[in-house]
Amino acid sequence: GAVVSQHPSRVICKSGTSVKIECRSLDFQATTMFWYRQFPKKSLMLMATSNEGSKATYEQGVEKDKFLINHASLTLSTLTVTSAHPEDSSFYICSARTGQGGYSPLHFGNGTRLTVT
Amino acid sequence: DQQVKQNSPSLSVQEGRISILNCDYTNSMFDYFLWYKKYPAEGPTFLISISSIKDKNEDGRFTVFLNKSAKHLSLHIVPSQPGDSAVYFCAATFQGAQKLVFGQGTRLTINP
Q1: Would you state the pLDDT for residue B67?
Q2: Which chain B residues are closer than 8 Å to A107 by Cβ?
Q3: Does B95 sit within 8 Å of A110, measured CB to CB?
Q4: A117 vs A96: CA distance, rounded Å
Q5: Between chains, do B46 and A102 touch, taking CB under 8 Å as contact?
Q6: B48-61 pLDDT per residue, tens
Q7: Structure letter (DSSP) for residue A52
Q8: How high is the mean pLDDT of chain B?
Q9: Pairing mode, if any, of strands B106-111 and B10-14?
Q10: pLDDT at residue A112 in the model
């Protein structure tokens, strides 16, 4: 079945540094990937839609200069949290859809727990 | 503006009984709904979905019911098993949309 791999699963960094999170579709090509963030006891909040070969589309309130998204190939999207601060500590999850349009389920990676000290 | 709402943050059910998780939505444009299951420190796993042209979809122990007039859907799990203990998210989308809108999640605990 479809698998989305996310790396790293857990990262601790110091305030002011940058962290890169990778999301790979392992057995299918994903022209679009989605980056979500989950706060404790909260819903999954869509941050941005990553489009292969073009700029990402960010949701309202998400700083595009802080959360850099690069979708360089059909199987890889990266999210870089730049100049991280403690308030960026969260659980980040990527996802991709194997089919076209909104009717095929999203498949999620296992998430990355980011802790900024 | 929470377009998809799961008003019960938690639910506790005895093993073998039926678990019923509820979800309400406000956007009448939504026409496709999904349920995801999530364990701690893992990404959500797709469980079951339903299109607005149906009012019921069944897959093994899992059944999703959709009441369009009430803008309400529910997930029934029967019989409930200890491995069903997780957080369940409902999500909604509409034709042409790429993204899903998620509810807040309900933590289901199955007691032996």
Answers
A1: 97
A2: 46
A3: no
A4: 30
A5: no
A6: 999 999 999 999 99
A7: T
A8: 94
A9: parallel
A10: 95
Q: Cβ contacts (< 8 Å) between A106 and chain B: which residues?
A: 34, 46, 100
In chain A, what residues touch B89 (CB-CB under 8 Å)? 43-44
CA-wise closest residue to A83 among A14, A21, A16, A12: A16
- Region B39-67 average pLDDT: 94
Nearest 5°: the CA angle B86, B91, B96 is: 150
CB-based contact (8 Å) between A101 and chain B?
Answer: yes
Rounded distance, CA A109 to CA A86, Å? Answer: 23
Residues B43/A109, Cβ–Cβ less than 8 Å: yes
Q: Cα dist. A43→A40, B7, B58, B95 in Å?
A: 8, 12, 25, 22
Q: Average pLDDT of each block of 10 consecutive residues along chain A (117 residues)?
A: 86 97 90 89 87 89 94 92 96 84 78 95
The pLDDT, as a whole number, for residue A100 is 61
Please give the C-alpha separations between residue B88 and each of A63, A95, B15, B91, in angstroms, as whole numbers: 29, 17, 17, 10
CB contact under 8 A, A102 and B89: no
Tell me whether residue A56 is exposed, middle or buried, using C-beta atoms within 10 angstroms of its C-beta: 0 to 12, 13 to 18, 19 or more: buried
